[in-house]
Amino acid sequence: ELAEAEDPEPVRRAALARLYGWFIGAGRHAARLRFPQRMTFDPPPVPAGVLVEPPCDDDAVDAWFAAERESLLAAIPQAAAAGLDGDAWRLTDVVSGFLVRNAYRRDYAAATAVGLAAAERDGDVLGLALMAGNRGISLGYTGDLPAARPYVERSAELFGSIGHDLGVGNAELELGTMCSRLGEVDRAVEHATRALTAFTAAG
Predict the structure, then answer these.
(1) Do 52 and 123 contact (CB within 8 A), yes or no?
(2) CA–CA distance, 54 with 143 (Å, rounded to integer)
(3) What is the pTM of this model?
(4) Are the C-beta atoms of 85 and 119 separated by less than 8 Å?
(5) Dihedral angle computed from the Cα positions of residues 148, 149, 150 and 155, in that order, rounded to the nearest 10 degrees
């Protein structure tokens, strides 16, 4: 609060960018180590003056996310409110795997709502694809599959638009699971077939 009262806007914004840059750098490394099957973004440049020392094994990653979860969740809407939309959706992506693994479903739903809106403003297609998929999955966890499906369908389309076969495959696989849960067997098979084609193309 004192910093907000005394520091000019450019100084506060730069300080926030350094903080979020640290979270994104360390969190992305931790997420890749702990959840290697999850897709993510290419690491952005670390802001000047930021030293990233990420955790180095699974136990350390779990402890890091447990300690930083509330700070990460608070940082997402703060970054969005500050106009740092790229940071907001990347922070959401960083923490999503931990939230899913540990069944923090309300946190996941709240974070993905903010993350998707931030990605829309940021205009990064990969970010939009990642956030749309995460938003759909978070809604699926609430049981609202009809509301969840359009987000994952959009994710598949966005991944396809940038030639991201692995992303298409994961989205199609998720859609197949959703259709199966809804009793739509033929559509589930169709999505599973598309997923296999995409995974084959991805190698």
Answers:
(1) no
(2) 35
(3) 0.88
(4) yes
(5) 100
Radius of gyration, alpha carbons of the chain: 18
- Classify the C-alpha dihedral 51-74-94-4 as positive or negative: negative
- Using DSSP's 3-state secondary structure scheme, residue 106 falls into helix
2 pLDDT tier (thresholds 50, 70, 90): very low
The pLDDT, as a whole number, for residue 55 is 73
What is the average pLDDT value for the chain, to the nearest integer? 90
Rounded to whole angstroms, the Cα distance separating 144 from 147 reads 6
Mean pLDDT of 13-28: 87
Tokens representing 87? Answer: 């940071």
Cα 68 to Cα 91: distance, rounded to the nearest angstrom: 12
Q: pLDDT tens digits for 64-75?
A: 999 999 999 999
